[in-house]
Amino acid sequence: MPDLSQNISVRILKAAEAGRYGVPGVVCYNLEAIIACRKAAEAKNSPCQILLFPWAQEYADDNLVNLAADVCRSATVPMSLHLDHAQSEAAIKRAAHTGKFDSIMVDMSHYEKAENLARTKELVTYCHGLGIATEAEPGRINGGEAGVQDTGDLEGILTTPDEALQFIDTGIDFLAPAIGNVHGPYNGVENIHLDFPRLASIQEAAKGRVTLVMHGTNEFTADIFKQCVAAGMTRLNVNQIVLWKYEDYAKEKAGRTPLTEFMEEGTRLIQERIEWMMDNIGSTGKAGDVQKGDSRW
C-alpha cells in the first residue's frame, strides 16, 4: 500500500484524531466561500479543508479548482482540497489528473454493495497511485445537496461494523459511516437521530485503520457537533450550516448593493459561520498540531 503519511489531508485528520477535535470540511460553490475558508482558518489558527463537488469542474472547467488549490497551498495554516461525492469513474480520474486535489471521496454508494466495493477498490488503488488520499461511504446516506446526485429514491442503509471492515479493506483512508445522518434538510432538530452506539462499534472494529468523517450536518447545533467530535469524527462536512447567513443577505441585498461591497460582506458572513464551527468543534488554535510535511505546511 502506498505511503500517504505526508499527504496533507491525511496529516490534518490524523492530527484531529490524535487531538480529539474536529476539522471543518466546507463545501464551497463560489469565490466568496473559498476565500472565507482561508480567512477563517488564518484568523482562528485552525486547519481547514475545502470541499468541492464534481459540479465545480463541470461548471467552470478547472478554474474554481485552481482557485481553491491556490488558496490551500498559499495559506499560512494547514489547508487541503478534497473532492467530495465523486460518483463516477470519469469524475474521479478527471479530478485526479489535475494534480490539485489532496483527497477524493470515491462515492459508489448508489450501486449495490458488491459493485460498490469492487469499484471503490479499483478507484482507491488508482488514486493512491497518484498520491491522493481516499474516502468512501459504507452503507448509504440518504438525501442530496446542490451539486450532488440525490439518493432519495434509494433506501438509506446504516453502516454495520462488518461492512465498515469490508470498505477498509479496499484501502480507503477516511470512512464516512451512515448512522442516521442525511444529506440535505432534517426539517427540524427534533428529526436528527444519530446512532452513537453504532458509531462506537464501527470505531472499535476499525481500530484506527481509517479516520472517521461526518456527512449530513445541516441543522446541527453546537452540542450535536460536539457529540460527533467526542464520538471520534475528525472532519465535519458543512454546507448550509455556514451558508445560511450569506444566503439571507443575498436575498435582501443582491442587486441593491455595489458588487464589491456585496462580495466582501458575503465573504465575511461565511467566514463568521466557519469560525463558529472551528470554535465549537475544537480546531481553533490547532494549526500547529499538524505534522509538518516535506512540500507544504
TrEMBL record:
In this protein, the active site sits at: 84 (proton donor)
Establish whether keyword Membrane is in the entry: no
> Which cofactors must be present for this protein to function?
Zn(2+)
| Reaction catalysed by this enzyme | beta-D-fructose 1,6-bisphosphate = D-glyceraldehyde 3-phosphate + dihydroxyacetone phosphate
| GO BP terms, alphabetized | glycolytic process
Copy the pathway line from the protein's UniProt record: Carbohydrate degradation; glycolysis; D-glyceraldehyde 3-phosphate and glycerone phosphate from D-glucose: step 4/4
What does the note under cofactor report? Binds 2 Zn(2+) ions per subunit. One is catalytic and the other provides a structural contribution.
For the ligand (Zn(2+) 1), the binding residues are 85, 183, 215
Q: Which GO terms describe its molecular function?
A: fructose-bisphosphate aldolase activity; zinc ion binding
Instruction: Tell me which InterPro entries the record gives.
Output: Aldolase_TIM, Class_II_FBP_aldolase, FBA_II
Q: What EC number is given for this enzyme?
A: 4.1.2.13
**Binding, Zn(2+) 2:** 107, 137
Q: Does the entry feature the keyword Zinc, yes or no?
A: yes
Q: Which UniProt keywords apply?
A: Glycolysis, Lyase, Metal-binding, Zinc
The family annotation for this protein states:
Belongs to the class II fructose-bisphosphate aldolase family.
This molecule's function is given as: Catalyzes the aldol condensation of dihydroxyacetone phosphate (DHAP or glycerone-phosphate) with glyceraldehyde 3-phosphate (G3P) to form fructose 1,6-bisphosphate (FBP) in gluconeogenesis and the reverse reaction in glycolysis.
Q: What is this protein called?
A: Fructose-bisphosphate aldolase
The protein's organism comes out as Cladophialophora yegresii CBS 114405
